[in-house]
Design a protein that fits this description.
alpha/beta, Rossmann fold, four-stranded parallel sheet, 8 helices
C-alpha cells in the first residue's frame, strides 16, 4: 500500500492503492481550527480596554488597537450596534461601550396606569419585551401582585425600587385618585431626587399640559398620543426606542 501527498502549502490529498490496484476512497483532510470572527475580535478588544465595564472608549483608540481600516471597523461596529451588543457615545470622533457589563442587573421599570387602558398597556409591554430579552429592563405593574400580597405595600415597594417609571397618560389616568394623587406624586419626588427617571407616555388625547408631569419630555415623538397614530405599532416602536435610549444611558452611568 502506498500514498502520495502534495506539498504542505496545498490542500492535503491522500490516495490509497489497494493490493488489487484499485483506488480506495479518498480521506478528506480535517479542517483547521476556525478563526475568530471580526465580531469576536472587536468585542474581546473592547472588553480588554474597558476591563469588561460599560465604559465609553474612543473609536480611534479601539481602531488603532485592532489595526483595522475604517471600512472594516465601521462595518463590524454597525453590526454590533444593530445587535444592541454595544452602545454609541457622543463627542468628537465618537465612542462605543459594552451595552451591559457581565453581571449587571437589569433596570426595574414600574408601569403606572389606569385599568381602563389595560389593552394599550399590554400592547406596550409586548414592544418592551425585546428590551427585557436584552437584559436591559424588567417591567412591573399591578397585575403581577400575587394572591395574599398586601397590594398597597407591594405597589409602594416596587415604586420605590424603580429605576424608570412609566406614566401611561390618558383622561382615565388623570382622573384616577390613586394614579394622580399617590403614584404620580411619589414618582415625581423620586425623579426630582435622581433616584428614578419618570417618562410620561401619552396613550390617548386629553388635557394634560397643565399636569405636574407636563414639564417632562414625553413619548412618543412630539408627545403625539398613541391613539392618534395611523399605525399603532409604529407609535409603540417609537416609545420602545425612546425607553431603550434612556435605559442605555442609565446602565452606562451605573
Amino acid at each position: 500500500m502506498e500514498y502520495q501527498c502534495q506539498s504542505p502549502a496545498k490542500k492535503l490529498t491522500t490516495t490509497f492503492i489497494a493490493q488489487d490496484g484499485s483506488e480506495a476512497p479518498k480521506v478528506k483532510s480535517r479542517k483547521t481550527a476556525g478563526k475568530r470572527s471580526d465580531r469576536e475580535i472587536f468585542l474581546d478588544k473592547l472588553s480588554e480596554i474597558s476591563n469588561g465595564e460599560p465604559t465609553l472608549i474612543g473609536n480611534i483608540t479601539i481602531r488603532n488597537e485592532l489595526g483595522w481600516d475604517d471600512g472594516r471597523y465601521n462595518r463590524v461596529k454597525s453590526q454590533l450596534v444593530d445587535e444592541n451588543t454595544i452602545i454609541v457615545g457622543r463627542g468628537k470622533g465618537g465612542s462605543v461601550a459594552l451595552a451591559k457589563a457581565p453581571g449587571t442587573k437589569a433596570l426595574n421599570v414600574f408601569v403606572s396606569y389606569s385599568h381602563a387602558d389595560e389593552i394599550l398597556k399590554v400592547e406596550l409591554l409586548k414592544h418592551l419585551e425585546p428590551l427585557r430579552r436584552l437584559s436591559l429592563i424588567e417591567t412591573w405593574h399591578d397585575r403581577k401582585i400575587k394572591a395574599g400580597d398586601e397590594w398597597d405595600k407591594t405597589i409602594s415597594d416596587n415604586l420605590e425600587n424603580a429605576d424608570i417609571i412609566l406614566l401611561l397618560i390618558s383622561i382615565d389616568f388623570i382622573n384616577s385618585t390613586y394614579c394622580s394623587d399617590i403614584e404620580l406624586d411619589r414618582a415625581l419626588e423620586l425623579h426630582a431626587s435622581g433616584k428614578a427617571r419618570v417618562i410620561p407616555i401619552i396613550l390617548r388625547s386629553c388635557l394634560w399640559s397643565h399636569s405636574p408631569f407636563a414639564k417632562l419630555q414625553a413619548l412618543p415623538q412630539d408627545a403625539k398620543a398613541i391613539g392618534t397614530w395611523t399605525d399603532r405599532d409604529e407609535a409603540l416602536t417609537n416609545v420602545a426606542k425612546g425607553i431603550k435610549l434612556i435605559a442605555d444611558d442609565l446602565l452606562q452611568s451605573k
